[in-house]
Design goal:
elongated, single chain, 153 residues, 4-stranded antiparallel beta sheet, alpha+beta
């Protein structure tokens, strides 16, 4: 990956709806070489996809919680079962496995506290292998959907 590829990535992170002609102009290439580079970045999954960033509050998802999960069992089958079950819960918008304790961090969005309580009681608490769930409510989103930094800087 060279400086031009990094520039393509930076520009697309700011505006993924650019036409190939607009992208080429912004990165200083003609259309054909820019298109080839873009397709290669997509083929290698450096660019994994394109999507709209939706304002959660605008669609009625005004409640966010960070859920720390400590596992009772950490054998391979239990962890894979837990991860598969978490991936199937639409309200879990981010899930990360951590080193140490806790074992996982989940970011959950719901309409309100009542919806979160039902989700925790009915789904999160029933996930396989869980010893403990600890929830922290998000008061304010400071940084969200930030573009990845250039690793060369």
């Amino acid at each position: 990956m060279d400086a031009i590829d990094r520039k393509i990535l930076a520009v697309l992170q700011e505006d993924g709806r650019l036409t190939i002609t607009e992208l080429a102009a912004r990165v200083g290439l003609s259309v054909s070489p820019c298109h080839r580079r873009l397709r290669e970045l997509e083929r290698t999954r450096t660019i994994r996809g394109y999507r709209a960033i939706i304002d959660a509050e605008a669609v009625g998802l005004t409640f966010q919680a960070l859920v720390f999960v400590t596992m009772r069992q950490e054998d391979r089958d239990t962890l894979l079962g837990f991860e598969k079950a978490v991936a199937a819960i639409p309200q879990v918008v981010q899930a990360q496995r951590l080193f140490g304790d806790p074992d996982y961090l989940l970011r959950v969005v719901t309409a309100d506290l009542g919806a979160y309580q039902r989700l925790e009681d009915d789904h999160l608490a029933a996930l396989p292998g869980i010893q403990r769930l600890t929830s922290t409510l998000v008061m304010k989103q400071i940084v969200d959907h930030r573009a990845l930094p250039d690793p060369g800087r």
